[in-house]
Amino acid sequence: MKHSGLQRDVLSLYRKCLRVSRTKGEARLHFEKYARNEFEKAIGLDKKDFSAIEYLMRKGQRQIEMYSSPGIKDIR
């Protein structure tokens, strides 16, 4: 199945979240659960609401940058 450009971007963001979670040691499961919950919240969005999707993508990128910092040990 072919994905649209925006769908590929969303999947890429999710993979990036999982990669960052691998750097967190024992807190890995907390980071993965948080990412999964955030993505599941957005499931109900209209797939044609591009502005909302792009907003959530930007928000997710900022969160990844913040949480990828070595100073952040856990998320709850």
TrEMBL record:
Domain Complex 1 LYR protein: residue ranges: 8-66
Record bears the keyword Chaperone: yes
Compartments where found: Mitochondrion matrix
Record keywords, A-Z: Chaperone, Mitochondrion
Any one biological process term the GO annotation gives: mitochondrial respiratory chain complex II assembly
One Pfam family per UniProt: Complex1_LYR
InterPro entries: Complex1_LYR_dom, Complex1_LYR_SDHAF1_LYRM8
GO cellular component: mitochondrial matrix
Family classification: Belongs to the complex I LYR family. SDHAF1 subfamily.
PANTHER family, A to Z: LYR MOTIF-CONTAINING PROTEIN 2, SUCCINATE DEHYDROGENASE ASSEMBLY FACTOR 1, MITOCHONDRIAL
Designated name of the protein: Complex 1 LYR protein domain-containing protein
Organism: Cadophora malorum
